[in-house]
Each structure stands twice: as C-alpha cells, then as structure tokens.
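[SOLVED] Need 3D model of a two-part complex

Original post:
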Amino acid sequence: MSLWRGVAIAVLLLVVGVSAAAPWLAPAGYARQYREAASASPSRAHWLGTDEIGRDRFARVLYGTRISLLLAPAAALLSTLLAALVGGLAGYLGGAWARAGMAVTDLFLALPWLFLLITVRAMMPLNVSPMISVLVTFLLLGLLGWTSAARVLCAAAGSLRNSDYVRQARASGIPAARLFWVHVLPNLKPVLYAQFWISIPAFILSEANLGILGLGVAEPMPSWGSLLKELEGLVSVGTEPWKFVPLALLVVVVTSFQLVLSKQEDEVAA
Amino acid sequence: MKYAKAMVVALLCCLFVPGLAAAQSGGELHFCLRSEPKTFDPLKVEDDSSMAIRYLTGGVLVRMNRQTQALEPELALSWEVSKDGKQIRFKLRGGVSFSDGTPFSAEDVAYTVQQLMDPALHSATGDAFRSGPGNVETKIISPTQISITFPAPVAGLDRQFDQVAILSAHSAKKEMAVLGPFMVADYKPGATVLLKRNPNYWKSDAQGRKLPYLDSIQLDVQPNRDVEMLRFKRGEIDLINALDSEYFDKLAATSPQLVHDAGPSLDSEQMWFNQVAKAPLAQYKKNWFRSAAFRRAISEAINRNDLSRVVFLGHAQPAVGPVSPANKFWFNARLKAETYSPDAALKALQREGFRLENGALKDHDGNEVVFSIITNAGNKYRERMATMIQEDLGKIGMHVNVVTLDFPSLIERMTQTFDYEAILLGLTNVGLDPNEQMNVWLSSSENHQWNPQEKTPETAWEAEIDRLMRAQASSADAGKRKEAFDRVQEIVFEQAPFIYLVNRNSLSAVAASVVGASPVILAPQTYWNVDRLMVK
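Solution:
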C-alpha cells in the first residue's frame, strides 16, 4: 500500500467516524435556527459560523456528510448492479443481444438526465419528508447512472465470452445461466469493483449539482449539495474562508476515493 | 472699430464656447439590462428591458414624477378628464419634433391611441385602457388639441398615459422616430443597445441649456447579477437598479456612498393556500385552507420581523397587505402588519377545534396538520423565507414540507392542475393605481391565484371585493375610489387569502461619477430623471 493510499484511507475513515458522531458533536442538530446570529463568523458556539438563516454550519457539514457518504455508495451499488445485468449479459450473450443491450445503453446515455430529474421531481408528490426526498434523489441517480459502466462491462464480458475456458465450459455442456453466474460474473469482479468506486464520487458530485439547482435533498436536511449552494454569488475566500469548508471536504473525500480506487484500477489493468 | 468688435467677439468665443461645449457634453452613461429587449415598439412592450428602452426613448403626454408620485405635464401642456371618466382632452405642446425632424401634432396622438387600442396588436399597455366593449374615438380639435373618448370609464385615466410613448403618424422611421431624450443608434443582439441624445428633444433646463445632458447611454445585456456587480465595482458600469440585499451590504462595506436604500418598494412577497374547490386535495385540507381563522393563525405565527432582518438583512419591511406603504396615496394607513404571536395563533386554532398532541397539531378529526409550501427553485430569498416559515409553524405543531420546483412546473400546478397546497411567490408592482391589480382581485380573473376563474364569487367577502373593485374602477372621484380600495385592503387583511410577508426595499448603486442621480422606489429607480444626469 502506498503512503498516499494509506493517507486516503485514513482520511476517509476519519470523515466517516466524525460524521457518525454528529449527534454527540453537534447536539443542537442541523435545523435549529439561531436567528440572532445569522451569517455569523466562527466562534466557540459555532465552530464554522452559521449560515444565512442562523443554522450551525459545523452541524450541517457533519449531517450533510453522513447523508452524502451513506447514500452515494448505495446509489453506486445500485448502478453497478444494473450495469452488470445489462452490460454483462449483453457482452456474454453477444450478437444481436449485445447490439440491443448497447442500443438501450446508448439511448439512456443520450437522455438529458438533468431535465429528466427535474421532470421526475416535478411529478413527485409534494408532501414527502426530507428523508424520502433524499432517498428518491439517490435512487434516481443510481437508476440513471449505470450506462457508462454497462459499456465497460459489455466489452469485458465480450472478451470473456470468447476466452478459452468459457468455450471449453460451453463445449462441456454447462447451461448458459450457470456459465454466466458461476464462471463469467466472478471474473468481472475487478471491473465491477472499479466501477463501483468510480461511481461514488461521481454521485456525490451529481447530488451536489442537483442541490445547486434547488433539486434533490429538501430543506431543512443538509447535504453537500445544499451546503455548496452557499458559494453561489460573490463569496470571498479572503474574508469568509469558513464557507469553503464543505467544498474543501468534498475535494478531499473525492480525492481520497480516487486514491483508494486507483488500486482497483491497477488490478483491472493487470 | 471693426478691429475692436472682432476682438470682443473673439474674446467672447474664447470665454463661452468651451464652457458651452462642456455644459453640453454630459458623457456616456453605462449600465446593464438583465435580458434582451424583446421589442423597440413602445406599444408592444411587456418585458423589463423593453420597458427601460421605452422610458429612455419615448415621449409621453404626461409623466408621473417618480419622486413625488405626482403627475406632471410633458408633451401635453394641460389635460382634463371628464366627470364620467370616459373622456380626456389634451392641450399639446407646440413646436416639438420627432428625432428625425417630423413635426409632432395631435394627429400623432390620435394615431398612437388607435394603434394602441387595436385588438390585433395585443398591447399590454393598451389593456390598461380596455374597461368595456366598444371602440375608442379620437377627435382632433386642432393641431394642438385632441379629445379621446373611451367606451367605458377608465379609472386613473390620465395616469395611464405615463406608459404611452407617442409614435409618429408620418415618419418613415416608424417607431424609431421618438420624442424622448434618447434614440436608438445601434443594437447588437445579445450584446449592447446604444442610445444617442435626441437632437430634437424639446426640454431645456432652468438655464436654457438643452436636455438631456448625456451624450449617449450604453446598455449591455447582462443576465448574470454577479458579473453586473463585479463590473460596477471595476467602474465599467455606472449604476445598478434593484440590487440584492447581500450585494448591497457587500458594497456598502467598502463604498457606502455608492449605495442607496430608498425604503420599501411596491413589490411584495406573499404566500397563499389553495382554495380551489376542484383541487386534487383531501377534503379536510380544503376545509383548513378555506377557513379564514386557519389562514389568519398562520399569518400570526410567521415572524415577519425575522424574515425582514435575517433573509433581507434588514432591507425589507413586514408587509401589511396588497399595497405597500411606498404607494403614498393608495396605502391604507389604518392597517398594521400582523403581530407575531405563536401563542395567539395556537389559541385561535384551538378555538377552531385543532389540538396539540405530543407536539403535533391535529384537527378535530385527528388529521395531523401537514402541508407543503412550494416556491421557485433558485430563488435563495424565497427558499430561506420558506425554511424560516417551516420553523415558525413548527412551533405551533404544524409540519411543513418545503418544496422547490422549477418555475414552469410551479406555474403548471398553480394555474392548470391546482395540485398544490401553499405557494410562496412575489408580486412585482409597477403601477400605483389599484386598477392595475384588477386581474388579481376580481373573482372571475385568471390571476385570482387562490381560486381563479370563479363563475360567481364563492364567498361573501370575495363578492364584496368584486363590488368594491368595480366601484372604484368606474368612479372618477379619487376620494370615493380611495374609500373603496381601503375597504378592499381591510377585507384582504381580515380574510388573508394572501398572507403578505415582506415588502423588499428598493436598493440601488450609483457610481460617484454620475451627477444628478437621486434613487427612488419607483422604477426606473436610478435613472428616472435621466435627462438631467451627467457622467463626469
């Protein structure tokens, strides 16, 4: 393990540990409005100051981290499974199946997913709790985010389909379904792992982008996206550096994920 | 002797010509339009950018002084409205020419009015004059006198002419021949509009110098407020109208002399509940929303002072009703903003059968009070207000979900499907006269937002508002109109179909190089006296 990879894992563990301890570190919660101290600078009472309506920024960063870090891997898992199903099967079956599978993938890739998400949000019932809105947002990200991974998996499964051991297994009469689940899918694991790890930062950034557009996680629940909205407009690094903490955290976490998953990529390449 | 005379003339030229030249050269004013102007035809104006160009280039018969809110003569020397409010007679200024040299006469006024009232034109400006079926008659009495007769009384008839820029009946340049202080000289779509001084503008200052002082105005199309602000800070533009409170405070921190808070504007932020009978909502929710006691309790439970202080950084005032205190004549001064009192709100709800159980408010059938407030995504002020209202109402046990939707989806729910519970939006008022709010208050109107297009008024108080609004619209007596509209404001306060939240202050910024600016609350805030502005 390289030094940087070790540091990255330590950072991720630290972030996960601190955000898990949010109820103890920020007992007042993320929604309480200290209206007399709105837009306050950091102080002993509010370590990262308060936002525009007086909510403790430190508490919101902790709780927002929990949400983004919990649900982004869940969405990544969903999208990786879908990619395995569509891409893996299309590559394994080959021929017209592969062409049909990739045509569906291309269709999904061509969809203007941002507008799709806006439309889906507009069609959703209005009285959903913030937690449901969070789940729906990440579910949608997971359901729509499998396409690129499906293409990679289709290519990988296609090469496995023509490998000697699969030909031999097929020749010895192993049923197609068993061949796929027992012999092909396990050999796609390195690619699946890599796609899973790659998807996590992508989904964190996607949620952040949706948050900036006013979609995604509903008030008063925080997420990295809603925290980054504070940086809209003329925020100065020189005068209000504490407002950049969520951005810095996002960069650190995404970079750490990249460093960790580079190992997976190396394995795939090998 | 001849030599001496020549010397005197030469000396006078040396003394006065440079001075005169300096007085005439007022420099170039530079500011931003927030969108592309959709038209240069003053009769077709609907958007803010086209309205700005109309103000800068159009010559009007009468002009409302944006500072005093009084009507002043412009191309009309005097005017007289008939007692029945149907006819207006203008005596026009003589010796005036359009920017291309075409002389101005009563014929141009008649032509403009006929064009304006042509139903095929669909003029929003013309709609203000349409009070009944029938045609408008114009009678040219002389080249400087005209009478215009409308088929039905038009309330505030003379004031409506503030928006009517006179077109030339004869000029080959059509709407590009203008009577205002400036004329369009160049237009680069998506980039700039260049206005040059109208050489034939009729006004002069007290010293007899021809107006306007400015040589030109460059308007840059710039939708991004951040870029507009940065350009102002860099000195690339000279003024900003309708500044955001955050930007105002940032600028005030470094250059307090450049920012101006003119006090509450005509604009209001408000929320309302869906009272549409056919709305796809549970019946018990419809019962809540149609209860005045419920709506008043919500109004009492909202801390408007906090909304003004926290969301708008103090650059807003708790709103009272449909008319802002900025509207000096029409505001009902007897009304005061609802006092914040969650305890009183809870007691009022308890009197209506609601009860608080384990921190949650329930109606007499045991339904928990849960509803959503929609606002448009991307409007940070409204999002913050909705979140603060969410917490305020949480204190009386209500569970509020804040939903931000893209604007088209919101409008669809508001006007087509009626699939919403409460909406938080703002209203931009450009006119002072209550007639301009007719489309909101008449129960049959499409813009009667809480329950549009009622076939007959569904409540007694809506019927009363209809009656009062029609009465004020058909009266030419300002006192009687005021009395009727005061009562409308009282009914709106009592029934709370709209829960008015705040009136935002009119904030602007003017560079130190601009001489003669005195920002006001009415649009265009910073350049309402554009013909007397100079850039050093």
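Edit: The mean pLDDT of chain A is 86.
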